[in-house]
Amino acid sequence: MTAVLIFIATLLLVITQPRGLGIGWSAAAGAIASLLLGTVTLSDIPTVWSIVWNASGTLIGLIIITLVLDEAGFFRWCALKVARASGGSGAKLFTLIILLGAVMSAFLANDGAVLILTPVVLALLTPLGVSKAQQLAFVMAAGFIVDTASLPLVSSNLVNIISADFFRFTFTDYALVMIPVDIASVAASLAVLWIVFRRSVPKRVDLSRLPAPDSVIRDSLLFRAGWVVLTLQLVFCFASSFLRIPISAVTLASAAILLLLSRKNRVVPAGKVLKDAPWSIVIFSLGMYLVVYGLQNDGATSLLSSALSRIGDSGTGAAAFGAGFIAAALSSVMNNLPSTMIGALSIDAASVSDAVRTAMAYANVIGCDLGPKITPIGSLATLLWLSLLSHKGIRVTWGYYFRLGLILTIPVLAASLAALALVI
């Protein structure tokens, strides 16, 4: 019970962040308690660090890239291009914004995508005279898609990176399985989002009120370099499967190139970008995983391992559905990052065949990527996003979010796991 109580207390600290403690030091407090009370030892720290360092570095690199490109006007340009491609149709604009969010999430990770896409979408809709109720439909769709579309690449979500490192999936192997799953997830997301919000989407919008796309570019050098850097980053990420290069090295190198280029015209404040980068994610990942590792050391994950072993006896497809829905349920109530860690440790300890273990590992990723959308506390990005909406004058109550999260998430989760069962 000691490890369980430390985990619950740490989770409460991470969610509430009292006195500005922040996610990093909140998790660190839990890790210190775990060390002092003996649920983990100093010898466990190198083991845990070997699991989280690559994921933390990758996310920091991607967030820096996102912040630099946003300052350069990259995403506003993309949004304006999307708006013009809609031809003034509200339905097309709604669909294209969702697809823009899916692309941003795939290549730049969900955490940065949701916090950048939301203000960009609001800046696009406000000149069009779209009402607050109609804006809510667009921003809820944007907030939902960045998580449900964060499946295709290892770098698309912190959950993916940690899982791929833990189970030793290469970037290419992971993509071959999860790109088809992501296509199913995006298609299902489009369907449910349209069913739920179709009455709130305006029939027509007046595009003449929008500025020309090129007018929002603040640094043309960075704007052009962004396309090249993102392309090369994707190429090298796939090459990392053969060259044995950590993905964090690729993303951090890409971020460094853009930061160096930003110094040429000095339009983009490199110092501000570095200050806003999520450095605390390193402390958070190490601290939270140490707390979760204490659960394993004290046998608290053995019940889940036993349940997964029994599910695994029913075959690969059933194992994928069972592990995926369990991961989603855990993510919705205890945050998706610790759920990823608990799921990975439990799957690794389960008495199942290698094929079933692989299916469960991918299903755990799907559940932990999509499950957080059921509740506001499912992911830290969602809590930050809801705070951002509040500051923008759009209030989303937890009750409304929970009802909507259930309606939207369950069918998309089922469709994604069905696609996995067909692919694996």
TrEMBL record:
Membrane topology according to the record: Multi-pass membrane protein
GO BP annotation list: response to arsenic-containing substance
Alphabetized InterPro entries for the sequence: Arsenical_pump_ArsB
Subcellular location: Cell membrane
GO MF terms held by the record: antimonite secondary active transmembrane transporter activity; arsenite secondary active transmembrane transporter activity
NCBIfam families per the UniProt record, alphabetical: 2a45, PRK15445.1
Protein name: Arsenical pump membrane protein
